[in-house]
Amino acid sequence: MAIMLSALLAGCSGQSQTVKAETKPAARDDLVQYATASCLAFQQNGYLKDQGERWAGAVMQNARGPVEKWTPVADAVKAELARTGVAQGQGEGPQSPTVPLPVMTCGQIATKPTVSRSIDAAANALIDDYRNEKGNG
Questions:
Q1: Which of 53, 56, 98, 99 is deepest in the core (most CB within 10 A)?
Q2: What pTM value is reported for the model?
Q3: Where are the beta strands (DSSP E) in 46-129?
Q4: What is the spatial distance between Cα 135 and Cα 38, in angstroms, rounded to a whole number?
């Protein structure tokens, strides 16, 4: 409702700014989902890998723009995982070994600086594609 009000107050020139302002968050939201799904798809655990691949596929079915604009995000995720690995948490009990926390790692992957920059760059590249109504699916 606030967007409609601001568009009405801004007049015709404000409408194009409102559309542009709405497209980048929509693209960024999809890219964050894609980064998280890609992270899961890169995991060794078969279940997480499968779920990540299926989630990434679902995101891409509704995505806009060519795949080439999306792949740098997956590449950044893969590079970040290679650089930092999967977070580790303490097992139960003081003598327990640490345990991998891939879900936590993937839940936070989009906030890593290199991945976040990649998401921002892809969102900027996809603005015109997101003005279009149809997805890839």
A1: 56
A2: 0.79
A3: 88-90, 98-100
A4: 19
